[in-house]
């Protein structure tokens, strides 16, 4: 049976700010996309925490999760992820405890250990720049403790209210082996950020599965991979649409961040040969093309990684084309299922 037919498909959204459009429009477009993929049978809709990036509007991630969850009815909504060292664990527990209470059984808490921004902005976030993520494990343990139901609450204990007893599902996110190993040893689900770190994906997945220990959360490893997918009616159209994502990565390499740019007919005049190679490496696990190209690319990716779930980011400038990209993937999934 086709792997695409039997693998849950989810969405990663950064609520992109498009050149010439308002941030308010970014939010309404995100909600429209969430409603669209909910109808298409996608499993999750996650939003990513980033700061001080002119093209990303999802910085107040928990607030935006509430907006999306409130405007949908069945799809799971969560963070992909919350950068835990940026926040006090109690605050995260209260925020996601509130979300879980408002939208029971629909909230996911994906956690990362990077700042999600540059060093100057990390200082503005009051992040401890000397930790290098070394404090992630105790922060995670503290957060998990707040979300559990205490056996015998002490009147002197600090409690997350709301949050306590909600047991919001926690995922560990990563782009290297650190979070993969930690997720495995704790028996938690793991999501790899293949959308920007494809070269480490196979290694991280192998580490996660090798060290995995069953827990009260999982009996067996559960790995989700993130990837960029841009689907269109033809390979040429998809390649054209992908130039917005390529310009974004190019600007990231140059440290010249801008709102998402419209697609262009050719990137040749915008980058050097070395920059083109760097962008191609960044997009190494991406699937860009027409229907058959995307179907074959996703089947290959799922076969190579053995992923239990795939989370798709479609950085497309035009909202209608963006929704159509997710629609094509859903059509390919349904076609594969009906052929089985």
UniProtKB/TrEMBL annotation:
Domain Luciferase-like: 12-307
Keyword Acetylation: no
Uppermost EC category: oxidoreductase
InterPro entries found in the cross-reference section: Bact_Lucif_Oxidored (IPR050766), CmoO-like (IPR019949), Luciferase-like_dom (IPR011251), Luciferase-like_sf (IPR036661)
One GO MF term attached to the UniProt entry: oxidoreductase activity
Coiled-coil blocks: none
EC number in record: 1.-.-.-
Pfam families xref list: Bac_luciferase
Stated name of the protein: LLM class flavin-dependent oxidoreductase
